[in-house]
Design brief:
286 residues; 10 helices
């Protein structure tokens, strides 16, 4: 079955992320790749001079990614999986968690590829770029701030070996390693939406609770019937309304959780015992 996969590329500027994506686009055969480079979409604002506008532009891009992923739902019947390579620094864990939430809401697989280099090599490679050059101070700050994947939710992560030379960024072995990782992640289960899962758990709990209430209702009729017979043999005359009120208190206690059977089965004996306790308590109060 085909999947939709969101992969964050994590690392300092000029570490070969975009170059590797270009090579993958030429070689990919088992899946369709869409390369989304954040720098090409967020070009009109600077995160240093205008962080507020930069954040808004970033959120707008993430919304566009959400729309793009959502529009690909109809294509999941295809044989080939759709892999979105999100090309950014993603140096804060919170940035990656935003992508995780997109994956959760759209039943996508989520993963990360980590590019590690020394800040000196990143600065050197950045200065030799023929296109967009990042300020050296920005790279130095990012190097100190970057939060590499380590949390439990960051379970599908490929840590590429640290580069000692920029020329190593697209070696055949490195490309093959990334291709194998993408093959692997395309076989993994999609992320689950916590909100949907919570609703499912609540629905399951309510269904279980309703089953217990129904079981108790049936068994209480037998218990009350037996108590009335025992009362007659003993010469007692307990009004049925008293038993009926106790039954109502019992069932209400089940619904509110005040009365529970835990892991024990709901049996006539267990119901009778709890019913007797409630009955005795109400008689004492009266």
């Amino acid at each position: 079955m085909s999947k939709r996969v969101l992969i964050c590329l994590v690392g300092l500027p000029a570490t070969g992320k975009s170059t590797l994506c270009s090579e993958l686009l030429k070689q990919a055969t088992n899946y369709d790749i869409e390369h989304i480079c954040y720098d090409k979409h967020i070009t009109t604002v600077d995160h240093v001079t205008d962080p507020s506008a930069w954040n808004k532009a970033r959120q707008a891009l993430n919304q566009n990614i959400t729309n793009l992923v959502s529009s690909n739902k109809a294509e999941t019947c295809c044989v080939r999986s759709k892999v979105f390579l999100l090309d950014d620094n993603f140096y804060y864990r919170g940035m990656r968690k935003e992508i995780l939430h997109i994956a959760q809401r759209n039943s996508c697989v989520f993963g990360q590829i980590v590019f590690r280099v020394s800040k000196e090599l990143a600065i050197s490679a950045n200065n030799s770029r023929c296109d967009t050059i990042v300020a050296e101070e920005t790279i130095r700050k990012m190097s100190n701030l970057i939060e590499y994947p380590s949390e439990a939710w960051e379970k599908h992560v490929l840590h590429l070996a640290e580069l000692t030379s920029y020329n190593e960024s697209t070696t055949p072995g490195r490309i093959e390693l990334v291709s194998q990782f993408i093959d692997f992640i395309c076989e993994q289960s999609p992320e689950k939406d916590p909100a949907v899962e919570k609703l499912k758990r609540e629905a399951d709990r309510d269904e279980t609770l309703n089953d217990v209430v129904q079981q108790c209702d049936i068994l209480l009729r037998k218990v009350i019937s037996q108590k009335i017979k025992d009362d007659r043999r003993s010469g007692l005359n307990v009004p049925y309304s008293v038993y009926s009120r106790t039954k109502s208190l019992f069932l209400e206690g089940i619904k509110t959780g005040e009365i529970s059977f835990g892991d024990q089965p709901v049996t006539t004996e267990a119901v009778s015992l709890k019913f007797t306790v409630i009955f005795d308590d109400t008689q004492v109060e009266n």
